[in-house]
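To whoever picks this up:

The nightly regression suite flagged ABC transporter G member 20 as changed. Nothing in the input moved, so I suspect the structure step. Input below, exactly as stored in the fixture:
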Amino acid sequence: MELVPSPLKTRTHHSPTLGELLKRVEDAQNDNNNAQPHHVLHLSSPSSSNTLPPPFFLSFTNLTYSVKLNRKLNCFSSNQNSLPTDQETETKPNGIKILLNNISGEARDGEIMAVLGASGSGKSTLIDALADRISKDSLKGTKTLNGDVLESSLQKVISAYVMQDDLLFPMLTVEETLMFSAEFRLPRSLSKSKKKARVQALIDQLGLRNAASTVIGDEGHRGVSGGERRRVSIGTDIIHDPIILFLDEPTSGLDSTSAYMVVKVLQRIAQSGSIVMMSVHQPSYRILGLLDRLIFLSHGQTVYSGSPASLPNFFSEFGHPIPENENRTEFALDLIRELEETPGGTKGLVEFNKTWQLKNQPLTVNVVNNGPKLSLKDAISASISRGKLVSGTNGGNVNGNSTASVATFANPFWIEMAVIGKRSLTNSRRMPELFGIRLGAVLVTGGILATIFYHLDDSPKGVQERLGFFAFAMSTTFYTCAEAIPVFLQERYIFMRETAYNAYRRSSYVLAHSIISLPALVFLSFTFAVTTFWEFLRDVPLRYSLPCDAWLHRGGCDNGLLSSLQRILHQQRQNSTLLDMVPLPLTSEVPF
Ligand SMILES: Nc1ncnc2c1ncn2[C@@H]1O[C@H](COP(=O)(O)OP(=O)(O)OP(=O)(O)O)[C@@H](O)[C@H]1O
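Regenerated output under the current build:
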């Protein structure tokens, strides 16, 4: 059975949809399932494969992103009559601030592209724009993969985004963390043993074998080192082996050795057939040796785009040769910063880069021509057949178009909730002190509430007080979880654009917060709600005695109940404050 579809063969027939290709590959994998171990086992050793990875070529042209500044917010911070300073020249008089200005570039699989620049130059914004984390309405320009426009839905499936901060559960081990990620992101159809195999392969790929059984840790618990933690974080996002990987400053906060190891891991991921794009502050000399393409930004504009090897040539042609034995990137960043402080800013360098790019254009054209020979669909299907994109093969409408036919999420909602719920419980179980503190806080709150609402009677006032308690308890529950609500809302917003996992990973913190306090308060609230409702029901005949009387006279209840209700009605009318609150029918309407 032919596992990898021949591109030549595919081209001579009608052009299949991506769904058909994925289905074909899935069928081939199913047929071969018994004959050979699942492809995920081979991911850690791409070199062992005889076939070369299918080439991917990501190109972005004239990416421009601007935001409208809120003048009301700025009225205290700046003098509106003052002219913009050199650092603010990207802000137009109409309040539009250009964060990315006509950025173009290209990246291909097997390579790492790094975005460099001073703080505030737009590195994270560019990574976000490429990772489809920016509103399409405000982002101009095109992004193509192997010549096809990269649709959001397809990008969600074939890419991953690693955030700058590590959101990991402190009391889970490295292996458990990756296993939960596998259960969340890999399809249900993949057996547990294959998920475990994928996790083991990933642990080797990330160089985490020695730390596999160590807990992640936090301020109160010793755990893995900072570099290992960052690698675990990357691992949770690449469990499905994406084709494109975006990382926002993966080396920030790490010492040079740990940073080097992280980038080394990224190089290994790239060599397994992925495009890796990351932002980085000041890479060391050794890290520079691992990078293949660089983009230097200054105030949202490209000041250099090319390989690290071309840097000396570029700057010597610009008239600022890089001294020998000097770190090239450090020199370039220092020079850019110096230029930014001059009256003309980096305009000269931006213009020089444009002419330099045109001069070197033939080189780029050659790269494109000698590069990908496969169409996007062929390249993706061949990539999947080699073990990439583990979750991308799950389901899909084979008759649909290329983007609609790819399953967006690996698992249904309830499985995702079950996985993150189990993970939160495992983590909480291992932190009894935290559990105790939260439970204690709930009990103390309950105790205080109990003293306020102790001994409620059955009068209408009592009913009202119960309702008051209900409102109070619900708002207490709300404020207990309010701390995590901004993150939750933000993630719900991003959820539309980024992979589901990141969203859930954050929102699972809400769950973790709520999981202890919610049940207790909800139980309390529910109990009081039921009793209050019961009291309310008991008062209904008194409040609405007219329809009740009619109902009683129609024979809606037996005589025993009728007479007892009538007695209650009568007594209430004699001495109850209800008379003040609810207009009741005249006494003559009561049949005694
Ligand atoms: N919504 C926004 N409105 C106005 N300005 C913004 C907005 N978002 C980002 N910026 C500005 O855009 C610029 C680029 O931000 P970005 O986060 O991309 O910088 P960066 O190069 O990644 O910086 P750092 O290395 O410090 O993370 C900054 O000056 C920032 O203040």
